[in-house]
């Protein structure tokens, strides 16, 4: 408990430190440039440029959150420069600083350059800081909501309200109490542990088969934590090659690699102050694991093609359907990264180990499907639920959701009946040994072949409405041969004798 409390106190201190944002200041007067740098550098990383050409070179090599540009410069005006920035680097929030207030300049700045704010000379340090803080916050909100708020003429207050409403709705939707389970379910203990972990800034590794609800638990951990007011972002680490995955997570500069057509803000930066969920972490390459380990150790990222590192404060929740300890022993996953990620391990039990949850989950899914499809199916018949509880559900909750969607489409009215179930579920699923053999490391070839053969027969029966002659013809078997296999695998339900 003392260790947990220590972790929590460190987390509270860290959350008070916002990631250092980068502000580009452009002014051709050296003294003015130095004054701006001195005021802003206490809170921001400041890059100074004495003219538009130098500013462009900075934008080519660095990721910038906000630009503060003088209007009257010798080579081109601030509005002209920011108009070019808007078309080439649209993400940074653009501001003009000027001692002049011609209405045509203001109108041009808003319409052509997408100016967020005019700062009048002589400026006051406190007001200047407030303006730049607002610009940086607007930048982060834009990245989280994936909108161009300035170009849509949305005020920072409006964007903040939209994000706050979105987070409030998500907090209610992904509360721990909304994870459906029975009182005697093995999932209950997992949820109790996850509640404890949510209170402290500790890395969590969620293991379990595909479709068991690992992301749902990760979201509940985030929205049950002190980071709930910040972003929750998701990345599937198994879906992208290394370079694209690095670009997604850490960011990149335009032209950093083939296909990098624009600057990209990494998800670690979007999640600053919040939580990042790294799904399928076990699919990553050893080369990427080294880079991720450095980010977790140093709490800093370097966008591809950029020169400067950026500090981030992010909680990591990772998930995998692999046995990472076995992967570590086999040398396919770094031991030091595993211990960094698995400070607090949680395991989601498969649906076959919690049949008591199936009626509750099925009722919830049915209600959602009714609403989505505009149906009014009253419920699920008792014998149908019993058949569902006998099935192994190798695809877990995701497979159950698909099955109920299919049943609702086929159902006429009233309750879902056993005849609406697909044959593989109605039949009670595959025998335990062959079914498990497909996924087990020590499965024999005989078990694998039997499981595959049985699955092909069941699928063919379903396609042909149980007609033995048609199924035998499709599988290249005689009717007698097919009957022998039906008896061998104890497949009886749904079989139609067409002799």
From TrEMBL:
Keywords: Activator, ATP-binding, DNA-binding, Nucleotide-binding, Phosphoprotein, Transcription, Transcription regulation, Two-component regulatory system
Ranges for domain Response regulatory: 22-136
Single GO term (MF): sequence-specific DNA binding
GO BP terms, alphabetized: phosphorelay signal transduction system; regulation of DNA-templated transcription
Organism superkingdom: Bacteria
4-aspartylphosphate PTM sites in chain numbering: 70
Keyword Ribosomal protein: no
Entry keyword annotation includes Transferase: no
Sequence ranges assigned to domain Sigma-54 factor interaction in this UniProt record: 180-409
Stored CDD domains: AAA
The protein's name: Two-component system response regulator HupR/HoxA
Native species: Rhodopseudomonas rhenobacensis
